[in-house]
Amino acid sequence: MKVTFLGTAAAEGYPALWCRCERCIVARERGGENLRLRSSVLINDDLLIDPGPDLVGSTIRLGVDVADVQAILITHLHDDHLDPTGFLWRGAGFALPPLPVAEVIGTAPTLGRLHDREGKALDPAGLRFAPRPVSHGERVSVSTGGTHDPDPRVRPGRTRTSDGAPPLASLPTPPESNTLGVLTATVARSYDIVVLPASHARPDEQASFFVVRQTLGPELTHGQPATVLYATDTGPFSDEAWNILDQLAHDGWTFGASIIDATLGLGGPGTAHMNLEQVVWHQGELGRRALLSPDAGRFAHHFSHNGTPPHQELTAHLAQFGVMPSHDGLVTHVGP
Ligand SMILES: [Zn+2]
Ligand SMILES: [Zn+2]
Prior knowledge:
about 20% helix
């Protein structure tokens, strides 16, 4: 399972938009891994977690293509994790069809935000997505890839660009999935997704974090499932969350990577986010509960300039505890 970090910052970005603190100045000077967009990850090329406000920027910056995404998981309704406007660019005139229909998975209050784009609801049929409300504790399965029907807007046998112009002869031949009217075939994968309650936001907003287990696909080693824990934004895990995780351990699940909220950095401990000490404790506790594979990648993620040192110092600090910081563009291959 391939995990690509599209963005790794908290809500204000790092360096923060309006900030001239020492850390933001250093981040701008050093550039590279110190420049962080708002948090989002892509799993393989077909499962996206958190379609936030930086999705356009991060995919352009990293040269990542998300047109094959068929599952979109949303942790919660905060603006830095869900930007409904991004869904508009899936529509006719913006995306060259046929786009596969993407299942959009989140709790009811989270998906409710899709009805709130400048006061108007998004149109799932026109924008090629299907909302799938889930509850905490639920396990859902998603299959992606295979052959899917062409977009109904497409008339067979014609190839053109999204603005209606004929393709330029000098451009390379578009891949089959970009040829209108042809059934597209993408790689078939299956995922089991576990929805956990996050310690974050108002209780009625039902913020979540996820375990994603890939059970089918060419990335798997000897066909063995690969599993990742993606836990942002959240404070210390609740008893309810630990009970669900214990059940997964009982069922024999182990995580090849665990990615945990570190918004508060070297600051004091939090209840709706965590500091680095809390991240280290949670990584250890996952190990003690037999939830981490022997060579699991242990990541801290979702960083703020308030408390988080520049990337190089952060990396050195966390290395003592066997934890790595995420950075934008980081790709990690998650094994069984
Ligand atoms: Zn956030
Ligand atoms: Zn949040």
